[in-house]
Amino acid sequence: MIEECKARYIDLVIAKSISRFARNTLDCLQYARELKAKQVAIYFEKENIHTMDAS
């Protein structure tokens, strides 16, 4: 999925929670930064976090 995001086939990833997105915090931050740089948003439903929000 990450490769498809990088190729811009996907522009929004919806995850039930942060824990479902990545195994650990470091991986989560790394993927979130990589995807944001490619203009791919991530929405974490449980935490109500959207990576493209300004706040």
From TrEMBL:
Domain of life: Bacteria
Protein source organism: Gardnerella pickettii JCP7719
Annotated Resolvase/invertase-type recombinase catalytic domain residues: 1-55
Record-given protein name: Resolvase/invertase-type recombinase catalytic domain-containing protein
Record-level Gene Ontology MF annotations: DNA binding; DNA strand exchange activity
